[in-house]
Amino acid sequence: MKDEDKKAIEEKLEALKKVKDSDDTEVIKKATDELGEVAQKIGQAMYSASAKATADGQDQAQQQSQQPGQQPGEQDKAGAQASQEQEQPKEDNKDQKTQEGDFEEKK
């Protein structure tokens, strides 16, 4: 968290603490709204930083998995074949019947 954001939220929190026991609901609401705005700003900055880090990590992983001379997004033939094999169900298990049901642990 940036020092300026920390300072802003501390200031708004102190302002809210000063008015929390007063009878003026408008002043309390204003202080609460101001604190909420600062908190949302910080949350948005954290979310943006997280999304950027995730995107950077995915880009780096894609570059590392890319074969020399291969274009971005291009999958090699072995990788395509492996993907197809994973998608097709195995026929070896046709004789076995799986039955779903409740599970009860015996003690």
Structural class: mainly alpha
Helix content: 55-70%
Low-confidence stretches: none
Number of strands: 0
Cα separation of the termini: 52 Å
Mean pLDDT: 77
Shape: flat
Largest sheet: none
- The helix count comes to 3
Q: Classify the beta-strand content into a percent band.
A: under 5%
**Which H/E pattern describes the elements?**
HHH
Which radius of gyration do the C-alpha atoms yield?
28 Å
Keyphrases for this structure?
107 residues, mainly alpha, 3 helices, 64% helix
Q: Could you please describe the fold and organization of this structure?
A:
This protein has 107 residues and is mainly alpha-helical. It has a domain at 1-59. It is built from 3 helices and no strands. The longest helix has 41 residues, at 25-65. The radius of gyration is 28 Å and the shape is flat.
Topology:
Blueprint: H1 3-19, H2 25-65, H3 77-87
Helix pairs in contact: 1-2
Write a concise synopsis of the structure shown.
The protein has a domain of about 60 residues. It is built from three helices and no strands.
